[in-house]
Design a protein that fits this description.
It contains nine helices and eleven strands. It has about 270 residues and is α/β, with parallel strands linked by helices. The strands form two sheets. The chain has a six-stranded mixed beta sheet with strand order 5-6-8-9-10-7. A five-stranded mixed beta sheet has the order 1-4-3-2-11, with helices on both faces. α2 packs parallel to α3.
C-alpha cells in the first residue's frame, strides 16, 4: 500500500484539523519510501520502541506522542538524535497522532468508556461539532453512566482489572457510591471541573498536580499517563489493521517509565 494511503487511513480516525494549537501531530520524519507493507504502532517514539519496530521489519511507524513538541537541531547525543538517526538510516517515516486522536470521542480514546459500558455519554471539553447528526462532538475526555451503581471499592477493583494494575494515587472526596464516571487520557487533570459539571462522582486521568489535588471537589484517580494511552494505541492498531487491507499492522508495547518507590535496604553496620 502507498504511504499516502496509510496516512489517509490514520487521518480518517485522527483528523489533522482537530489538533491543538500547541501540538505537533502529523508527519514527524519524512521518507522517500513509497510502498508500506508493515506498520508499527506505539505510544512513544523512544529509541527502544523504534528499534523494536525496525527489528520487526516495520517500514512505517505511527506513534501517539510526537517526536518533539519543540523540534531543535540534533546537536546533542540524546534520544531525539538517536531516533532521527534510526529512522533516517532505515528511510522509515514516523507519523504522530497526538491530540488529533485524543479528541476523537468515538475512536480508540473511548476504549475505557466502551469497557465500562458507559451510557448517556458527554464530552468534557468540546473542540469541534459532531461529524454526524446525533454523534458526539470532538473533544477531550468522556463522562458516562455505569450500567449499575457500584460502591467505591468494587469500582476500583473493576478499574484495576481493566488497566491490568493496581497502582496510581487518589485525591479529593471518595464517593461511597459511583454512578457516573468521567475520564481523560494522558494529563487531563485540568478538566476536573468539567468532569464535576457532568455529574460524575469520579474522574480518572493521569499526572495530577499537587495544587489540583488540593483544590479538587471531585474524587480523582490518577492512574498515570501511560496506562490509558498504551491501550488506546493498541486499539488504534487493531482499527487500522481492519481498515488497511494488505498491510501488516503490529503493536510495539511499552512499559511505564514510572515505577513504585523501591524500599532501600538499611546499610550494614
Amino acid at each position: 500500500m502507498q504511504l499516502s494511503e496509510i496516512i489517509s487511513g490514520i487521518e480518517r480516525i485522527a483528523k489533522p484539523g482537530t489538533a491543538a494549537s500547541w501540538d505537533r501531530s502529523g508527519l514527524q520524519v519524512a521518507s522517500g519510501r513509497g510502498e508500506v507493507t508493515r506498520l508499527a504502532v506505539c505510544l512513544d517514539p523512544t529509541p527502544a520502541s523504534v528499534r523494536r519496530a525496525l527489528d520487526a521489519g516495520a517500514d512505517c511507524i505511527l506513534s501517539h506522542h510526537p517526536l518533539s513538541l519543540s523540534p531543535d537541531l540534533p546537536r546533542r547525543l540524546d534520544s531525539y538524535r538517536e531516533v532521527l538517526r534510526l529512522l533516517l538510516c532505515a528511510d522509515v517515516p514516523l507519523y504522530a497522532a497526538h491530540t488529533t486522536l485524543d479528541v476523537n470521542s468515538s475512536g480508540p480514546a473511548a476504549w475505557l468508556a466502551d469497557e465500562l459500558k458507559l451510557g448517556n455519554r458527554a464530552v468534557l471539553e468540546v473542540v469541534a461539532p459532531p461529524a454526524t447528526p446525533g454523534g458526539l462532538p470532538a473533544g477531550y475526555g468522556l463522562a458516562g453512566d455505569l450500567p449499575e451503581p457500584l460502591d467505591f471499592a468494587a469500582f476500583n477493583a473493576l478499574l484495576s482489572r481493566l488497566l491490568g494494575f493496581e497502582g496510581g494515587t487518589a485525591c479529593g472526596p471518595v464517593p461511597p457510591r459511583v454512578e457516573r464516571v468521567a475520564y481523560c487520557t494522558g494529563s487531563g487533570s485540568s478538566l476536573w471541573q468539567e468532569a464535576l459539571g457532568t455529574g460524575a462522582q469520579l474522574f480518572i486521568t493521569g499526572d495530577v498536580k499537587y495544587h489540583t489535588a488540593l483544590e479538587t471537589r471531585i474524587g480523582i484517580l490518577d492512574v498515570g499517563h501511560h496506562s490509558l494511552e498504551e491501550e488506546m494505541m493498541r486499539r488504534m492498531g487493531l482499527e487500522l489493521a481492519a481498515m488497511l487491507a494488505g498491510v501488516d499492522v503490529i503493536f510495539v508495547a511499552s512499559a511505564s517509565p514510572l515505577r513504585p518507590r523501591c524500599a532501600c535496604a538499611a546499610p550494614a553496620l
